[in-house]
Amino acid sequence: MQPEPDVASPVSADPELADLAWRVREGVGRLNWRMRAERDPNGPGPAVLAVLSRLYRAGTHTPTELAEAERLQPQSLTRILAWVTERELVTRTTDPEDGRRSLISITPDGLMVLRHYSIQRERWLAGALESTLSPTERQLLKLASELLMRVADA
To answer: How many percent of the chain have pLDDT more than 90?
Structure first.
């Protein structure tokens, strides 16, 4: 059920565009929650995985850069960095340009943890797509996924 829009600040003057925005947000959000539910409950949590993913995709960061990029409080990031450092999922080195700062990089073990998590989710998703969607619907979803990536990069 779609919630009543806030009349003080309409999403869009175009009701069809507002409905599409709601449907995309709702679908992406529900899929994200469902995929998170498929993760190993004994594995790293979402915040740890987000940090590892950031380091993999964007490279070495300072702790401050990581906290800002992931919108984490410094205290939360400190706990996460202690956890991943203890398990050798990241390395922490001194910044050669500023000895007061440290640089955080993902290790091969960190990449393996991240890839394992991704494979788990993709395995579940492939099964759900196969059992739920027709071949034509899967082709439409492929096109939609490309469009979603374009919107995300806008």
So the answer is: 70
